Hints:
Elements: H1 21-38, E1 48-51, E2 60-65, E3 68-74, E4 83-89, E5 100-103, E6 113-118, H2 120-124, H3 128-145, H4 159-166, H5 168-177, H6 183-190
Antiparallel strand pairs: 1-2, 2-3, 3-4, 4-6, 5-6
Amino acid sequence: xxxxxxxxxxxxxxxxxxxxxxxxxxxxxxxxxxxxxxxxxxxxxxxxxxxxxxxxxxxxxxxxxxxxxxxxxxxxxxxxxxxxxxxxxxxxxxxxxxxxxxxxxxxxxxxxxxxxxxxxxxxxxxxxxxxxxxxxxxxxxxxxxxxxxxxxxxxxxxxxxxxxxxxxxxxxxxxxxxxxxxxxxxxxxxx
Length: 191
């Protein structure tokens, strides 16, 4: 008999994004850490939006902060293939310029921020240089956009996914059973 914890099958759409439950847990923990580094709680998470873009057939879990895409968890059958897109300060010394996907054009951005494409292992096992650059980038983005009161993508926000970042019970239910269309209604009933 095996002592290994039984694998939980992921529900749609998460089965299309993550390889298994361990990778999904890592992905949600990474989002939590990013929110902490952004200091997004200081503004009650107003500019934060978690989406499953329909244009990507629900194979991408996207975190927008105000107007910017900060993190994409892209599934293996997504248009992008199995990658993590991560917004970082544009710096060819800190990040391989070949990983640059696109750059933002924001009038108040003095340093430049671009989206870089990484494979999952590069992000899961960030070296010290990339970790420092990621944290500096999130602090900068938090200072630049953290005061916003919302996001242009607010109508696509998935509150159950956002709650799962912080609440392990909600996360377990979400990964096992998928999105609950009555989640917001049930939460409002209990408050």
